[in-house]
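Example 9 (inverse folding). The structure is encoded as follows.
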């Protein structure tokens, strides 16, 4: 663990080649094969940067990152990652040993068709998503959100998780950190937690508002709101500089800023609460 008193640079990856194109291919391949679980890194950002046409052509200037940052840091959540997390959970329920009690087999057997098991999964700042799976780990079907079910199978290969989803086989680095399952592939990593039913109900009741957290250790460079200020969904709130990049934190919902703790110049830890957005009540809501 590298504390916030130190530069967050964990490692450098260096590549060379007979020309620029070969060096870039080798560098991207090295980043793709880098596995770091349990912490957030900028590997995804670096791979997106290397894939940019201007970077590959050497047309680089000091304003390039600022112009393209939003494109390079899009925090998409691949569907296969959530399906793999469900498959990993199902695999963990499979009985071990030469003799298994039929009631320990996680097939969801019922008269008619197998029952679904549903997990509500939370990944980073993304909205929780329901993932359904049924069958055995070696021959299951899984549905992410409102999507149709697709065939799925999973097995372990040493410490790795291998999942075939819809005919496509992917290999994931896998590690457990308390209640968080970390999966990694292609240089990226995701920390996935199961959201308990009561927590999910509370999140829905809160309208997805609540604490705004620092995405990583860094320094607050700007605070663009005041305590008690009304904000719209997507409004800029705080800017945190970390890993030589500025992260603009925005309001998850329309509401009122409460408990503003962020101050320009403050050093903050990962997941530190910077402020709270209290969701606005609907116009027709009565408060006693």
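The amino acid assigned to each position is listed next.
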């Amino acid at each position: 663990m590298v504390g916030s008193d130190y530069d967050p640079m964990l490692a450098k990856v260096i590549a060379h080649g007979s020309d620029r194109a070969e060096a870039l291919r080798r560098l991207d391949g090295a980043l793709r094969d880098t596995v770091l679980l349990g912490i957030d890194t900028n590997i995804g950002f670096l791979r997106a940067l290397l894939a940019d046409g201007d970077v590959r052509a050497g047309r680089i200037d000091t304003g390039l990152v600022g112009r393209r940052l939003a494109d390079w840091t899009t925090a998409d959540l691949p569907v296969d990652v959530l399906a793999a997390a469900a498959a990993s959970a199902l695999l963990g329920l499979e009985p071990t040993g030469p003799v298994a009690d039929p009631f320990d087999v996680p097939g969801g057997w019922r008269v008619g068709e197998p029952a679904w098991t549903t997990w509500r999964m939370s990944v980073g700042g993304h909205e929780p998503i329901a993932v359904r799976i049924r069958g055995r780990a070696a021959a299951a079907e899984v549905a992410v959100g409102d999507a149709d079910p697709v065939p799925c199978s999973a097995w372990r290969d040493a410490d790795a998780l291998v999942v075939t989803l819809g005919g496509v086989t992917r290999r994931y680095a896998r590690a457990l950190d308390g209640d968080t399952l970390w999966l990694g592939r292609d240089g990226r990593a995701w920390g996935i937690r199961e959201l308990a039913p009561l927590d999910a109900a509370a999140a829905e009741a809160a309208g997805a508002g609540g604490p705004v957290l620092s995405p990583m250790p860094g320094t607050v460079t700007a605070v663009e709101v005041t305590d008690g200020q009304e904000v719209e969904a997507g409004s800029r709130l705080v800017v945190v500089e970390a890993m030589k990049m500025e992260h603009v934190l925005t309001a998850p919902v329309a509401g009122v800023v409460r408990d503003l703790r962020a101050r320009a110049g403050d050093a903050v830890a990962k997941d530190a609460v910077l402020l709270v957005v209290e969701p606005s009540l609907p116009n027709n809501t009565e408060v006693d």
